[in-house]
## 1
Amino acid sequence: MKILVLNAGSSSQKSCLYELNDVLPDRPLQPLWEAQIDWTHQQGIAELKVKTAKGDRLEEEFTSDSRKAAISRMLETLWRGKTQIINDLKEIDIVGHRVVHGGQDYQQSTLISPDVKEAIARLSLFAPVHNPANLEGIEALEKILPNVPQVAVFDTAFHAQLPPAAFVYPGPYEWLENGIRRYGFHGISHQYCARRAAQLLNRDLTDLRLISCHLGNGCSLAAIRGGVSVDTTMGFTPVEGLMMGSRSGSIDPGIIIHLLRRSDLTSEKLDNILNRNSGLKGISGVSSDMRQIGDAIAQGNERAQLALDIYIHRLRAGIGAMLASLGGLDALIFTAGVGENSPVVRGAACEAFGFIGLKLDGEKNQHSPVDEDIATVDSAARVLVIHTQEDWEIARECWKLYSHL
């Protein structure tokens, strides 16, 4: 079975092709083909990078004002040119899409139908950056592969079993009736990391209490008990929770009221401030990238140091909140760009939890660990660095659905 995965961002498009047999493997397979389109560097120019499991590579730039046209060009490299790995697109059996927001109605991966597409479009109100891009990818594939089933794998689905105390906001009850509630995000990553943690620990997932720290440009924590998300930091939108690369995370809502009363701010300007010019970027004035923050700190930049200090303070507070929701901890997981690559962040986060017996092995922490336990032997809880593989998790969901068609 050949499974095509599309993972659309606001300014990028990732895709890969997996081949699975009748038995779903425990460990991620290497994709036969991987491609990425990036629109961030030049207006109207798409940068395409493709690589195959055999080692063939392609890099090119082309004019693109249409995501659908760009996806078509990307998929051509599957069956034409030096990165060809299939003879015909008809060899693809099923297509899986990451869809950021599934709302209250879609609490598991779902075969795409006109009703599902309508819901994804409607939920763009809650995820205006991502859901429209997800929908464009779906519609592009409908034209290219009209008879191939497509699956929506929702980022919110993993958090569908949050208890009401965790997902209801303490505003007027009418908010809840109008769909204003905590949804949580990064669910595909948290789900993958929870299962991978159980494998690494040689434990049954249903017996584990885990805190998953997805720390990338966007950041969220999930408290996972028995494989189920029982608490998380992102909420109605991906702005809530931890300090992030360019997002503020949680702030006093009174600040928004104060600014609206005393300035000419519009909702669009506020959105730009909170999503694109806050967080590490807003405080440091340097960058949203933790690596550049580190470089600036090394050069004595005090604002960069302040940005890191706030980031760590809020990360520790978030982990503490998740710990309280779980009532104990078997393993703390670090994943995504910062989580996987910043020993400084991991070390500072863990240092605060020595009082519960959490102990980090400093040497292991420094050595770019991948899918590894970096806690000391006598630590009261394990500390895992896991390379998140959202595309593989999407492929697994497709395999499970396809097996029941």
## 2
Amino acid sequence: MFFERHGGGERAVLVHLEGQDPEAREDPQEFQELAVSAGADTIAFISVSRHQPTAKYLIGSGKVEELRDLVKAEEADLVIFNHTLTPSQERNLERAFECRVIDRTGLILDIFAQRARTHEGKLQVELAQLEHMSTRLVRGWTHLERQKGGIGLRGPGETQLETDRRLLRVRLRQIKGRLEKVRSQREQARRGRRRADIPSVSLVGYTNAGKSTLFNAVTQAQVYAADQLFATLDPTLRRLELADLGPIVLADTVGFIRHLPHKLVEAFRATLEESSNSDLLVHVIDAHEPERQAQIEQVLAVLGEIGAEGLPILEVYNKLDLLQSVEPQIQRGEDGKPQRVWLSARDGRGLELLEQAIAELLGHDLFVGTLCLPQHLGRLRAQFFALGAVQSEHHDAIGASVLAVRLPRVELNRLVSREGMEPEIFIEQHTLQ
């Protein structure tokens, strides 16, 4: 090993700006949680009141001097801004502080880089990092921006900066090509599920709302779940059998956050398409979070950005174990359909209500009933078996097949009309509403 990484977190000074436009204002508590998730050892949290950001430093020159003295006195390795910095502001602040400076986007990218486990996840993070780095590449190579002169060093070759930019462009093309292949593979898998008529359900929500804990509780999976921001990065899909509905595919997706960097939305489009192509979105909400309404609005904003705003949504208020005198329940709309489910993924209370609500919302066009087919309808009987719609079969006294079936109503109507049959083949039926 040529070097060893520091065993503990990097000593960081956090800088939060107050007085910004309400739409651009960030949450200071969330900022500190992001820093902890990245592994930073926070030695100071500085709140700066700034109504008119400056072009050179974002903050005033007096505050820059104050922060420089603090960085030197505390021997900080890093200064993190809870705001987006331009490349020139980042360079100017690094010269002033004589240490690394990153902004909110760089912090989130670092967390994503630590969490990526699959090959696809690593490619997506690398794409976002390279696109973010491309505007900041000059920072590390200012001493090589011009070709060196002098005896033996003159020549028409490209500068080191130009070489790095060219290599960066090549790598970006490679990653985008690989991710396009991943996207086509995911789309092929989705087409296969649609042909098999298996509904897909995606868990979406603000980061640390409890999506992975809920996913594990429902599917008995072993997805990594922790009380930290962006614990889940790579999507996980599991097949789940629901009573009165049959199989569904449940997907656990990456959590959203306030002002999710656009580069991440673009890089993770292949993953986020799992949500935008779902039959139902389960929006997991932290019921114990004081800022939950703001978090709900942020999730809806990101869903709109990925083209999933028109999909049916079931709200799930999680973490009832942290609330008092609130029982698991299903809240319904005026049409009687489930709108909200209150539950606790940690202790399992209310999980059966979630499965019931999903079955009701996805089963609105599902026929569940019993059919009586005389012996001369053997071909129709075979078609029901070929579709995997038969749950059980027995024969009555005259030898007719009595089938308990579950299949989409449109498929049932197609098969019955093709055979020219009448409704009396139904002994009993009910359609999930």
## 3
Amino acid sequence: MVAGGFGVGKTTLIGSVSEVTPLRMEEPLTVDSAAVDDLSGTPGKTTTTVGMDFGRLHMAGGQLVLYLFGLPGQLRFQPLWEDLAEGALGCLILADTRNLDACHGALSLLDTRATPYAVAINTFPGAPVYAEAELRQALALDPGTPLTTCDARDRTSCLYALITLMEHLLAHRTAAPQEPPR
């Protein structure tokens, strides 16, 4: 999964890395949403994800296929988040230093479900830059949670963020006790 707050770049990231034309469930922003969706960091934003985004990516020489599900960023879609999180192996959470609080809903959901995740700070032009320790404290990240940066518009940058997540998932899986075969 790819999660994070409203306007953080989830749709853009999936579009940057997907090998297939991404499925996008976007609708125009309306007057009704203007009162609840903060457009201060994204004044040119005219649409929002109301269902999910979907993309596919082969990694490791085709040995690994990632199915990327982008969650809508607003808390009012939490029931959909819960449905899409069912069976997910992990999540890349995108964060924006202009509004770090926007990703706390996704962090809480994943912590509650014990879903492993990595956090990628999407490097928006002109956004404040903070030291890693400050970001970890602001996001209340465990020391073992990977924290990286990416530019959601740049394929290579996004691939590195996804590789960070995959390495974390593999380490998490190796460290977890395995059930004996039945």
